[in-house]
Amino acid sequence: MKYRTAPAFPLLALLWIGLAAPAAWAAVYELPTDGSPVVGADSSVTSAYEDTLTDIAHRYSLGYYEIIRANPGVDVWLPGAGKQIVLPGRRILPPGPRIGIVVNLPEHRLYYYPKPHGREKPVVITYPISVGKMDWRTPLGVTDVIAKIRNPAWYPPESIRKEHAENGDPLPKMVGPGPDNPLGDFALRLAAGHGEYMIHGTNNPTAVGMSVTHGCIRMYPEDVAALFAIVPVGTQVRLINEPVKVAWVGGELLLEAHPPVDDEGQTVEPDLQLLSAKLDHALGDSSAAIHWDLARATLQAANGIPTVVGIAADNPDAAAPPAGTPTASPLSRNR
User: Fold this and answer.
1) Count of Cβ atoms closer than 10 Å to residue 134 Cβ
2) 279 found inside a domain
3) Are 206 and 295 in a shared domain?
4) Is there a single domain that holds both residue 250 and residue 305?
């Protein structure tokens, strides 16, 4: 189940923060009781004349490239009135333990698994993020939140000040709180490195969902405010690079693919050979009949939308891929 409004129990009541920025809603999902890694559902909204895709992305807590890839051919800045805009909301949860915060760099998305209290049902809360751009890598691995900072000051490292100076945009040694501060109003400091990496807000919401930061993780102002309110110091943070996710649902194989992120944190064009190898690895010892034409098309599109690409080998009566999908070759055995 996905909540667009704050339910009655205490944890989720914290997730709607009324700010001056455009209204946005946290994507909060109850974890499936059967252990399934699939949550949520896709939806759509009709655009108004004054909308841009970035406006709609911000309103529904989606990232820049996330909404663009889900709506190919739609003009980013002038989609036009009356157009149906897809809001991607069905997700395969990242692999690994559902503990604390998980950041999947290719997905440009953060997942938080708060500890349930009392009779609260386990949930996952997810937000779009920006990550490091070329030459400014967001680190991978396990770390934790070591401090929570309201109205942080920004002390740009010498390397960043040099970069700005070379571009004719010199920076002071310290940028105080306020509209010119790229850290926004809230920051979670991580133990990674020497404590220089943070999860923080931004004074440039349009760029959320891109690889544009200097290694930090950037969020919409209202999203980081909501996260800041419920994440305790000491929370584990796991940063991963998983462009391909798979899941079994009712005997069907779902594939979710995102453009890979290279060693420098830069999004690169999908490499079918690499992604096919990752798909094979993700399947492990599973026996599946995969429609490889459809699987390759899904890997190539890398639009982040889970797609049925096969069936369990022991479930020949499961539904085939929907009509209209590529069918140049029949389902072929994998493993």
Assistant:
1) 12
2) yes
3) no
4) yes
In degrees to the nearest 10, what's the CA dihedral of 76, 80, 83, 89? 30
pLDDT 10s digits, 258-296 = 988 765 555 556 667 766 776 777 677 777 788 888 888
Do 253 and 227 fall within a single domain? no
Q: Which of 58, 108, 214, 216 is catalytic?
A: 216
Flag residues of the chain having pLDDT under 70: 1-26, 132-139, 155-166, 168-176, 178, 211-215, 262-271, 274-275, 278, 282, 313-335
The question of whether 200 is a catalytic residue gets the answer: yes
Q: Dump pLDDT digits (tens) for 21-45.
A: 334 456 899 999 888 999 999 999 9
The count of structural domains within the chain is 2
* Same domain, yes or no: 139 and 165: yes
User: Are the beta carbons of 11 and 26 closer than 8 angstroms?
Assistant: no
164 tagged catalytic: no
Among 214, 236, 258, give the residue marking a domain's end.
Answer: 236
| CA 267/CA 261 separation, integer angstroms | 4
Please identify which of the residues 108, 200, 258, 291 carries the catalytic annotation. Answer: 200
The answer to whether 148 and 236 have CB atoms below 8 angstroms apart is no
